Amino acid sequence: xxxxxRSKSPSLRVLSHIHRASSHENAVWWMIGAGMLGAALFVPxxxxxxxxxxxxxxxxxxxxxxxxxxxxxxxxxxxxSVGQIAGLVVVLSSAMINGDTSMTLPVAxxxxxxxxxxxxxxxxxLNLLRLHPLILTFGMLSVLxxxxxxxxxxxxxxTSEWLSALAxxxxxxxxxxxxxxxALAFGAHLVLTRTRFGYHLVAAGGNAESARRAGxxxxxxxxxxxxxxxxxxxxxxLLLAGRIGTGYPLAGNGLELDAIVAVVLxxxxxxxxxxxxxxxxxxxxxxxxxxxxxxxxxxxxYLQMFIKGAIVVLAILLNQSRKGQA
Amino acid sequence: xxxxxxxxxxxxxSGVAALSDVSLSATAGxxxxxxxxxxxGKSTLMNLISGTVSPSxxxxxxxxxxxxxANPQAAQSMGIATxxxxxxxxxxxxxxxxxxxxxxxxxxxxLIDPARLMADTRALxxxxxxxxxxxxxxxxxxxxxxxxxxxxxxxxxxxxxLILDEPTAVLSLREQENLFSIMRRLRDDNLLIxxxxxxxxxxLNIADRITVFRDGRKIETLAAAGSSISEIVNRMTGRExxxxxxxxxxxxxxxxxxxxxxxxxxxxxxxxxxxxxxGIAGLVGAGRTGFARSLAGLSGRNGAVRIERDGKTLxxxxxxxxxxxxxxxxxxxxxxxxxxxxxxxxxxxxAAALPDLAQGGIRNRRAERDRAASMLExxxxxxxSLSLPxxxxxxxxxxKVVMARALLTHPKLLICDEPTRGVDVGGKAEIHDILRGLAxxxxxxxxxxSEIEELLSLxxxxxxxxxxxxxxxxxxxxxSEKDILMAASGAAPAKETS
Lengths: 326, 498
What we know:
By secondary structure, chain A is mainly α. Chain A is 76% helix and 1% strand. Chain A has a two-stranded antiparallel ribbon.
């Protein structure tokens, strides 16, 4: 592509430049831009501040999950257990707090530790057994689901006012949870792009053998990304509990796939070695916008599933076909 | 004083000796070449010195002190740098991030400083006159450029010993020259350079001393000055080298292919007759592989090809179609798109012939095995078992298996891209024999090679490419390496072919 564009006339060069800028990695921003523009023009109520804040609140849980999943996928792995970690946290935290606000901090700490612990366990098993992470974390998904349902098959307890406020309230018209996710994302982005850990994580995902030869300890990277993923999953669970208000045992179902889709929409390669936290967040926003638009247009829930699935596949196809050309 | 001393070193793999009782001493400020046929123990020795594997017995000492390396990092931290034969780069990352992978510069907050990473890389590259963009993604670079990244990477920590395992196999002439000047410069900085290569001419040109290996044993260390290629080859093989063979003459009335290629500028037409071997010379980046890939229907990105056989136009829009018309391409990059590394020899050899071998879509293992066995035997492949995974074979033997796959599809026009890259002297001669034999049976053979010597001895005619155009056509018998180099580099006003 570069060779060809060099020999073209200036105007063609500009065109091919635009094409390239709009291609692969940054496609998600273009899609959001185009989608927002279309929505603003044709869907009344979309640009309403209240509605946009709503979109942001809805994005928060998935946003936190997508941050952890970006690390995992960039490192060349995958974590299917995050949805059920979040689900476990929703049930446990609601049951333990049960409306007692003073319990919020200790329980939240405990939940983050549980998330980290499950992630650590995933990482250790991965290193010891050398199983494919897809299989391993699918097993963990199933185990956690079993634990949740052994504990309860109906909603238990009540979340605290603080968690509920964090998940639902605004500051200066902007949702608190949006502040949290954005701060977290920038922190995670900094770690990925400016620290040795981040550099080595990307390298390990790109070519594990090359990374090993460069003296990078793969087991440490693998362990660390699963711990990060477990912690973010637990945090997402706390936010989710705040939104739902009670310990609903099915709360986490399917979240892991939404998180993976958001990450891939953001241009992170499923094969590892390429990834950006900020673009994953854009992927989350894109997904939330689609849902929101379909709601505003009063599309039936079943049809929504159909449309969302089709849009996601199309968007990723667009992403890939352009990457192939470049 | 010797910087590196190896005494009575042996390495056995499950009882089989890969290296037996080798003693060797090399001094700082010397370029020490290691030569030998495949399986002679060169790579094993390099792996032992670089800490990749540990010895079964014997010892290694660096600067007079006994050392034992638990892993490659231990050797690296003592200033032993290795440029591996197979690349150890991360393709998705930039040149700079690859060069400093594992030792990125950090600022006082412990964060990586991307600007300094770029600047350090730029400084390193310009110090050694390596022309590369530090920000370029490694994936987007040519194989030769990737090799230079690999070398730059080793230079960041080579303080005592630099090990180069066949570094020039993929480099263009200019890059080779540059690498040699880097090597001389490091020698003057008092480094020891261990240099493994199959190209004896360049070894005589650059090395100070040469150690010859055969069958896992050290045969002799010679001074490069005053040695000749035939002396070295005799020690490598233990026998005299035969004279280069001639390709059989082409029949006057043979069928022929007319290939019209349009990439940059006007379309050009070349012809090749059945039974003819046509060499394609050119520097790396001249567009030889692009032409070959277009021709074989692999990719239209590098220009359009129109091909006729005796006036009948062939449509080759995919490798499948091309193969059906008997046009087969043998890749220059075995590891990436040649072998199925996890599969055994039979599966690798018969992969393209399966439609032929499977009756009604049901595989016939015995037929596959028979067909593979007879073809591999014809190619003189020596392997313990046909059930071995192909990754266990040497480069030369892997090449033969990949060739077997092509030959089992009965090609009428065979395009071989660097058929002897990473193949030792003996294997090379055998592959040349195979190609000559094919031509004698009426196959048209196009050979792309960076070794002009190879093209001169193998082909009837040699076409030279530059900037994605054919710039010269010469009969192999009446031309010299120099003529071709001049045409390839644009040093002389070469006459364009029609």
